[in-house]
Amino acid sequence: MEITTTLLQSLILPAGIVAVLFAIWLANDVLGRDRGTKAMQEVAGTIFEGAVAFMRRQYFTIAALAVVGSVAIGALISVFETAEVAETSIYGVELGIRTGLSFLFGAICSMASGIIGMYISVKANLRTTAAARDGVVKAVQVAMRGGAVSGFLVVALSLLGVYGVFVAFGGLTNPAEAPFLIVGYGFGASFVALFAQLGGGIYTKAADVGSDLVGKVEKGIPEDDPRNAGVIADLVGDNVGDCAGRGADLFESTAAENIGAMILGVGAYTIATTAGWANPEAWIFFPLVVRAFGLVGTIVAMFFVNGREDEDPMNMLNRGYWVTTALSAVGMAITCAVMLQTGGTDAWLYFFGAGVVGLATSVAFVYITQFYTAGSYRPVRELAEASRTGAATNIISGTAVGFETTLVTAVSISIAIFTSHWFGEQAAIAAGLVGEDVEKFGIFGTAVATMGMLMTTAYILAMDTFGPITDNAGGIAEFSRAPKSVRHITDRLDAVGNTTKALTKGYAIASASLAAFLLFSAYRDKVNLILERAGRPIMDTVNIADVNVFIGALIGAMLAYFFSSLAIRAVGKTAQSIIVEVRRQFRESPGIMTYKVRPDYARVVDITTKAALREMIAPGVVAVATPVIVGVLLGYEAVGGLLIVGTISGVLLATVLNNSGGAWDNAKKYIESGGLKDAKGKVLGKGSDAHAAAVVGDTVGDPFKDTAGPSLHVLVKLLATVTLVLAPLFIGPA
């Protein structure tokens, strides 16, 4: 059977549905596994109750904010998106209503993704603990399949959501207009993801810090010990932050980046139509088809997550990742060859090259992150060694590691943007294009690379969710007083999980960088369209020597740091409340230490929930309001400066926070596993001065890697989407 553009486009909907059905199959497989002992089930049930209580409160708050946001966005579009500036035949009130509704739909889908991520993780953690009694391989498979449920559902719902809104807004009959009408969908997803990531991140790290400082440092009891009143809140936090927050986060990533690529595809569509190439609409549908192939490849890869009992669990996960990457490359080649036709030339080969660049960048960041955060490599061992001389040297070394990672991050992203842009330009030259069309194809090459990265998102999210599932599994094992052999296996998986969580953040940062570049191009095109229709000079460049632009750029750089300050301070303030409460319970109920009195876990969960929801508002509002204020007061060029410098600052700062935090965490795990020895060969494990120093470093790194860092790449894309949607608001009179 001949593979045609029509055939590939017809695969979008079935691929999304098949991925959902496969996720349901995986969920049934996980839920049908052994649930362990009664004690394990009791603690898992308590975690589930706490997670549900937090999510109910958090999403009620976020839903209220989303409704206000949709009304505000709709009203602004209705007023400022007039016939003179509109990119489509729809403008004014009608466009405002559509944008507001798509914003709300994107917000609802993002919230659903977060809820799915949380629900599955709190069910898989118990099964992973039980599976650990039978060995490493079974435990890895249960945790990975539990994570994959979230991965498949989030990515499939994102694909189906974008495609559904696209079709509903006339994409099948008028594909050149529809991408501009659905930008609100990506904005709504970004809006929810920011608050979900912030709220969950504040909760999880405040609970973690508060619990660890009183339990491990002051009382000298193990992590996740049932005598610690904060331990349930800590275990709940793993789910509402690392699972629910990351689910909403990557839903937003795939949706916003997909829409951005489709908007750039409109430019290629125009070129193809003018040149008389076959199936010009294929350039707009291309991002959706590529993602469909990525889902299919990930389904196959899940059956390769296997290995030996004595094998490093990370190798089992990497095996599946390589299968996903290889099959994605095949899917990219097919899609480029069929859909990106340029009048009989082989220009599609260059676009395939751009797609390979995206896949290679994904692989690069997976292994870069592993190098800086896994215990088998130099940076983490360096931090462990530094712990011999105290907490101060541990923190100094960890900070240095974080700063060091900016080098490889900046170089890798620069190479990806440059080479994918070059491949796009070469495709244009091969097709006989000249002038501005060459630049448009260069930008589209970057979009193809971004789509290449997104092809592996479902597997990456599965690896990410693997982390909190195994972390919870270890907590359940400790809490239920499971045999040491079980805890030994869950500790091994937890150390791997710390790395998988870190690599997901690296992956998200890289994709955010590419997405911000292409969304900035879309913003520039939008502004120039408005300026051209008004007979005003276009924005060829962003002139940093202009005073307004310089101020905008300065504010963009500041925003990344100020936003992080608010997020980290929120963790500290919430943690203080937890510390006071846990200390009080130990002081007033001495029987807790002898297991005669059960701590009041619910009270700590309640304190943490209220504080996290209160503290998430300020940084979220600052993130949304700042670009709008800059645009209204200083103009569209200043917004361009804010976007460029804010993106660069956000990406590099997130890299520092994510990787230093991950390195500190696994340095502690490395010491706990017996990797550090003194001159006489004696193991410096738990209870040693080196371990105490590493615990302090881990505590400092917690809000870095799980609150501020992950929220920053959401911030980067939120800046790009909010400015794109509200661009007409920033262009004042001539």
Descriptive report:
- There is one protein chain.
- This protein has helices spanning about 5-10, 10-30, 40-80, 90-130, 135-170, 180, 185-220, 230-275, 280-300, 315-340, 350-375, 380-385, 390-430, 435-455, 455-480, 485-535, 545-590, 600-615, 615-635, 635-670, 690-725.
- With about 725 residues, it is mainly alpha-helical.
- The protein has one domain (about 5-520, about 530-730).
- The longest helix is centred in the C-terminal third of the chain and has 50 residues, at about 485-535.
- It is globular.
- The mean pLDDT is about 85.
Provide the fold topology.
Blueprint: H1 5-9, H2 12-31, H3 38-80, H4 92-131, H5 136-168, H6 178-181, H7 183-218, H8 231-275, H9 282-301, H10 313-339, H11 348-373, H12 378-386, H13 391-430, H14 436-454, H15 457-479, H16 484-533, H17 547-588, H18 601-615, H19 617-634, H20 636-672, H21 689-725
Helix pairs in contact: 2-5, 2-9, 3-4, 3-7, 3-8, 3-18, 4-5, 4-7, 4-8, 4-15, 5-8, 5-9, 5-15, 7-8, 7-17, 7-18, 7-19, 7-21, 8-9, 8-14, 8-15, 8-16, 8-18, 8-21, 9-10, 9-14, 10-11, 11-13, 11-14, 11-16, 12-13, 12-20, 13-14, 13-16, 13-20, 13-21, 14-16, 15-16, 16-20, 16-21, ...
Order of helices and strands: HHHHHHHHHHHHHHHHHHHHH
Number of domain modules: 1
DSSP helix count?
21
Low-confidence stretches: none
CA radius of gyration? 25 Å
Helix content: over 70%
Structural class: mainly alpha
Strand composition percent: under 5%
The major pleated sheet works out as: none
Quantity of strands, as a count? 0
Spatial separation of the terminal alpha carbons = 58 Å
Give the mean pLDDT. 84
The gross shape turns out to be globular
